[in-house]
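Slide 14.
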Amino acid sequence: MTTVREHPLQKILRERIAIIDGAMGTTIRTYGMTEADIRGERFKDSKKDLLNNGDIFSLTQPEMICDIHRRFLEAGADIIETNTFGATNISQSEFFVDDPREHGGRKNPEFYQKIVDDPFLNDLAWEINERSARQCREWADRVANETGRQRFVAGAIGPLTVSLSNSPDADDPGFRVVTFDQVKESYIRQVRALIAGGSDLLLVETIFDSLNAKAALVAIREVFDADGKELPIMISAAVGRGGETMISAQTVEAFWTAVRHVKPLSVGLNCSIGPDLMYPFLEELSQKSDAFVSAYPNAGLPNPLSPTGFDLEPEDMARFLGDFAKSGMVNIAGGCCGNTPEHIAAIARALEGRPPRKPGRTSVEAYANEVKA
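Slide 15: predicted structure.
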């Protein structure tokens, strides 16, 4: 007799609002790391500056990255993200490959085919993803054992530094710097490494370009089919003031329509324009979606005079996310840019005991029905 196995996180989301962690980049900056720190011995001879390549810290400063994971977990996070937002060969090429535009050329599919085929970039992308997932796994399990509360590792899959939807050349609107298949292949390597490192979930996040996200979702499906292992998928988009994805300009409803066939465990909004301006678009998504809904907005708008680089303090984020919960809009809540462990702790306290949003039946039950024990 075949029985349906419910994922442990799915059970939690039915019972309470789960907390996802905050901003890795923001928190890294509080440690005062320098260019020499991120290079270490391994990358000391790199020709380009690496300090903005935060994913590399998982290799050169693992103690710091693990400390950040620990702090978010102790702040109350149920879900922590791997430090892999830009850990694809395409994104890493920005830091290790000369830009042809500096020599009178341009980036194009021929350029990116070399990137996708580059052994150094492929090995580096694999190592960052697998190592980061293992670091998360170690601390999620350690804190879970200490507290008796299960924690989950979300393999973070970012939006890339290229667009499939738009041309960078105003005189050639049909031109694309990269092809769908190249983007898909880049994501396939990342997905496999995140799974190999022990991720519980895959999170396609901060989606500016819906077509890039589609390539990531196709890559995930191909890996699942080829390797015979499936994980729950979380999807989260970033929207502008009009409530549309920032490059592909899909409205919230159109975005959900474009991804619902994946039957994600959750769909939501993150980053974007701060929690106050996110509210109406999250409300719309909550009404339309039949999956669980997540929200982890920026701590307001950028502010270089603020200690975190963003306006909102922990108590501010707690108030806004508390309003989301009071309105019955969320199952997963946390913070993106500007949110430190202190922000997440405040959010966790504000949402404790508040009932979760009640999702529709289609996507959630379909996921359970498709995962057979």
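Speaker note: Residues 308 and 338 are 5 Å apart (CA to CA).
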